[in-house]
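thought: user wants a sequence for this fold. calling inverse folding tool.
action: design(structure=
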């Protein structure tokens, strides 16, 4: 690996990017699995599973309310901005898939963006089919919030964060869009880049394998080796806010 690696693109190149919590770390957002990370103060099964929500919705709302308050004070960093600038160069030949719910890619200007684990600033009803809606409230005092549509119909429906928890399906339309991008990329030069993710959570962690099946050259940028590092062609160890601007410049 050269000292200053760069991903070279020409007019034929398609680029699919997957990001994780590490990309937002330099913006001040806590990651999940590190010492001092989110799962250390909140047990994952209690705050990121439908069973945990059924058992203690107040705890779940405390966790997400705290995260809403924190994320509001954070700004996109040079890693987010490098990805948005790269999209501006490549247009439809680029797609960004993020596991992050903090919306910092959106705020950095990324538009060809799929937020596969949901959005921190949206809520939905846990009981009715009402579409997810924008919601930046912190509900950590008193009872968990109720759905107005259900209340009007004389039912009790509890609002929940619009987040994909463990054991829940990802939105099939998101998976389809990713698969379609890969299918279209296979007859071109195809680059898959993952950044700031532990490679521990599926199906995101298997995207590198799908991309390789479609002929991609694969890159990982991470502060330390991830669980799936050996499945990538190239590994650049470092902070994404420093590495991505140089790699994509
Ligand atoms: C830096 C850095 C810097 C730090 N620069 N780097 C196949 C095999 C085994 C299990 C399964 C499987 N398929 C499905 C499953 C079950 C399950 C799963 O994956 N379990 C694993 C734990 C084994 N998956 C699911 O349930 C998914 N649903 C699904 O597949 O449905 C069908 C199905 C269900 C059940 C069985 C089978 C099929 C849903 C997954 C939903 C994940 N949701 C969460 C929480 C909600 C979001 C939120 O509240 O924010 O999403 S979990 C949490 O992990 C969060 C993250 O998006 C996700 C990934 O974490 P990430 O991004 O990797 O963060 P960290 O903290 O782990 O790592 C950060 C990395 O960055 C570290 O490596 C640092 O070193 C690095 N770093 N600073 C660069 N500056």
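)
observation: tool returned 249 residues.
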């Amino acid at each position: 690996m050269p000292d200053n690696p760069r991903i070279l693109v020409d007019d034929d190149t398609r680029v699919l990017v997957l990001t994780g919590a590490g990309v937002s770390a330099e913006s001040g957002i806590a990651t999940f699995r590190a010492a001092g990370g989110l799962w250390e103060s909140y047990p994952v099964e209690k705050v990121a599973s439908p069973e945990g929500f059924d058992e203690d919705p107040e705890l779940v709302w405390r966790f997400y309310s705290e995260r809403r308050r924190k994320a509001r004070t954070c700004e996109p960093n040079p890693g987010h901005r490098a990805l948005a600038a790269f999209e501006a160069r490549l247009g439809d030949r680029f797609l960004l898939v993020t596991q992050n719910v903090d919306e910092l890619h959106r705020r950095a200007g990324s538009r060809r963006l799929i937020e596969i684990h949901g959005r921190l600033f949206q809520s939905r009803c846990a009981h009715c089919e009402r579409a997810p809606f924008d919601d930046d409230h912190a509900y950590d005092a008193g009872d968990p919030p109720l759905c107005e549509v259900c209340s009007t119909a004389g039912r009790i429906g509890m609002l929940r964060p619009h987040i994909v928890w463990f054991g829940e399906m990802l939105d099939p339309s998101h998976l389809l869009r990713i698969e379609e991008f890969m299918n279209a990329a296979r007859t071109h030069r195809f680059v898959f880049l993952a950044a700031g993710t532990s490679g521990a959570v599926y199906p995101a962690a298997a995207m590198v394998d799908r991309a390789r099946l479609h002929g991609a050259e694969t890159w990982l940028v991470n502060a330390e080796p991830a669980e799936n590092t050996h499945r990538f062609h190239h590994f650049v160890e470092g902070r994404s806010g420093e590495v991505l601007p140089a790699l994509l410049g």
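thought: summarizing for user.
answer: Here is the designed sequence. Residues 1-29+76-117+170-249 form a domain with the Rossmann fold fold (CATH 3.40.50.1220).
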